[in-house]
Hints:
By secondary structure, the protein is of the alpha+beta class.
Amino acid sequence: xxxxxxxxxxxxxxxxxxxxxxxxxxxxxxxxxxxxxxxxxxxxxxxxxxxxxxxxxxxxxxxxxxxxxxxxxxxxxxxxxxxxxxxxxxxxxxxxxxxxxxxxxxxxxxxxxxxxxxxxxxxxxxxxxxxxxxxxxxxxxxxxxxxxxxxxxxxxxxxxxxxxxxxxxxxxxxxxxxxxxxxxxxxxxxxxxxxxxxxxxxxxxxxxxxxxxxxxxxxxxxxxxxxxxxxxxxxxxxxxxxxxxxxxxxxxxxxxxxxxxxxxxxxxxxxxxxxxxxxxxxxxxxxxxxxxxxxxxxxxxxxxxxxxxxxxxxxxxxxxxxxxxxxxxxxxxxxxxxxxxxxxxxxxxxxxxxxxxxxxxxxxxxxxxxxxxxxxxxxxxxxxxxxxxxxxxxxxxxxxxxxxxxxxxxxxxxxxxxxxxxxxxxxxxxxxxxxxxxxxxxxxxxxxxxxxxxxxxxxxxxxxxxxxxxxxxxxxxxxxxxxxxxxxxxxxxxxxxxxxxxxxxxxxxxxxxxxxxxxxxxxxxxxxxxxxxxxxxxxxxxxxxxxxxxxxxxxxxxxxxxxxxxxxxxxxxxxxxxxxxxxxxxxxxxxxxxxxxxxxxxxxxxxxxxxxxxxxxxxxxxxxxxxxxxxxxxxxxxxxxxxxxxxxxxxxxxxxxxxxxxxxxxxxxxxxx
Length: 673
Ligand code: D41
């Protein structure tokens, strides 16, 4: 007969076994059990627990499967702020860092550094009380993060309870949550086969996975974790170096990176950097640099930190990554303004954290300079968050019969003969809105976030709508019926309703947004804002002459010509009449001459939470009134608008004697204009 005692005994065994297997797998990368056998243990545990629910413990491995979705993440304050890392981009910058460290310490010769790969994931803080994981929070702004405990508990690499002795009564363990490359590839393969959106890189995948409100989704994502630091600690004496801290982490069952080392001086740091750079492509996870930390905690304390980063640590970033791959095809794309750009289709290549399959070659001149041909082996570069580019062709590997690329003489979409204006590098299809490609692109632009902001109208949908001849101009969007929408591929009634609601909502806009949405050549967001502020009404803009237009700040003769040419076209005037009759409208723009005296050119910084609008809305409002809105406070700032819970920006404003306005004072300032 099974007694309560024997059940407890078996539960304990199962939990210990499973925890040990988890540690073997995640920490030592040495599983000694098959996935199937692991599942058998897990199922037995779950079965026993479901029959004896009073015996479920907080840290049982069964608690990792995720639970019902949250409505939102709570904010949590970090007991000790999570600092960030300063960067060095060269050996010289690292040497300067080392010199600063030694100068501060008065050490003439050498300082020992701990060297850690810089994992490309998200920093996280784990709070253990009496050995139990009670809270996990993202870094946020370093002081307040989001409570992601439910999600973090699903990460197998993170122990739900610390083991060994002595265990601190309280400890915040800091480390990086990341997605190993094999897991990332599998996740994207899965996404591809179910036609879901692919993740751009492992970092985004890790961030997206951790930010799920439904922890069951997080549980299905292959996340991992390495510990590298601590916040608050109580009830235990810490070791005296960063290197020893790693050993203590391991003794508690926390995973740490095994590619760490010690260096006794700057020269050895440089060697270690080059070693890791070399190893980078063989590592099972993405790293984007190397972190150097003064190893001795006493020295760290002496050196201290500045507001957001310790002075005793630095991250040296890797240079831009380059890889070679093959050009499968060179297509040409027709943009919104008819510009025809060659696009190289590449054999997919993982470089600088993303898989690259298309690279635009901008224009014919660049194409000629680089002389990229179909079948060529090319060097692809991606630095940081920059758009990937083809650096050069590996000429030794060019096939003898490879032919130079020829720009088409006719538009690949509407077959009009292409044109190249004198002095311009770009070849264009002159057909304007008679060309389907340009229709599609201009409608996509019209609906985009900074234009009319039609939520949920993606590129694919616009393409379908144009291809099925349901729309031909931006105004046609507002003629669409629910039946028409619901008849499209991958559109159900609900999504049709949502889109119609989004379209209705988009009709109330601002004059500046409307102008930008029209897609006049050379009229970007900023110029649209200037035009709106200057002319105030559509009528006066439409009637403006070249001379009138050139009065506007940052409008030159070329922009002026494009504006005049746009409004001269009957087709454009018709579309505008159509849009207005369908209910597109905006509040009156205030008298511009008056505004120019009051707010124009004034520099605002918004901080904290506003109660009557979002910060983005406030920003738009101020910009429409001719003010500038920037993100950091300096002597050049005229006003800081401080909402609820304003933090460091407010402190800085006070320190610099910059005028601080409450939300109410801002409202008053605007109404008094
Ligand atoms: O691997 C990393 N991404 C990493 C990040 C690391 N190995 N060490 C780090 N150490 C720190 C300090 C020195 C401030 C404790 C870090 C980070 N910070 C960090 N990452 C993102 C914000 C801060």
